[in-house]
Amino acid sequence: MPEDHFPDFSGKLVNLYLISKASYSYLIQEATFEMQAGRLFLVGRASEEYDDEIWSRGKYVAIAWNQVEQYILFDSAEDYRAERQRWKLAKAARDNEKPSNRNQHRSVGHWIMSPWYRKRK
């Protein structure tokens, strides 16, 4: 692949995961490539699809392309919302299968092994 060939993100939402922040993602709309100070950046706007508590919604962002570990493309905001809802439902189903933390903490073995319990004896 030639070095000057870059993905075309026109009309897509791009969900980026960075090398240094693998547990956090950035959702970018109107994404294009731009050289800044000799470095390649993916520039665009933080998506309006973020939850309300994300302060950077709609703000201009520039992310160094060499810091991107992976990305996921969504064809539209509707596509993103549908996939996010499907993920939330699947996560809720998995969480319901796990024993609750409350029951785990009531087990006798837990209290005997805890440093707090041993100090009281």
3D architecture notes:
This protein has 121 residues and is α+β, with helices and mostly antiparallel strands. It has two domains: 1-75, Beta Barrel (OB fold (Dihydrolipoamide Acetyltransferase, E2P)), CATH 2.40.50; 77-121. Helix content is 31%, strand content 31%. It has four helices and five strands. A five-stranded antiparallel sheet has the order 4-3-2-1-5. The longest helix has 21 residues, at 77-97. It is elongated and about 50 Å long. The termini are far apart. Mean pLDDT is 78; it is low at 105-121.
List the topology elements.
Layout lengths: L12 E6 L6 E12 L2 E8 L13 E5 L3 E7 L2 H21 L3 H5 L2 H6 L1 H6 L1
Antiparallel strand pairs: 1-2, 1-5, 2-3, 3-4
Which terms would index this structure?
alpha+beta; 5-stranded antiparallel beta sheet; 4 helices; 5 strands; 121 residues; 2 domains; elongated
Q: Give average pLDDT, whole number.
A: 78
Shape: elongated
So what's the CATH class of the largest domain? Mainly Beta
The CATH topology annotation of the largest domain reads as OB fold (Dihydrolipoamide Acetyltransferase, E2P)
Strand content: 25-35%
Order of helices and strands: EEEEEHHHH
Tell me the CATH architecture of the largest domain.
Beta Barrel
Helix content: 25-40%
- How many beta-strand segments? 5
Uncertain residue segments: 105-121
Structural class: alpha+beta
Spatial strand order of the main sheet: 4-3-2-1-5
The largest sheet, given as strand count, sense and whether it forms a barrel, is: 5 strands, antiparallel
For the termini, the CA-CA separation is: 68 Å
Helical run tally: 4
Number of domains: 2
Radius of gyration: 22 Å
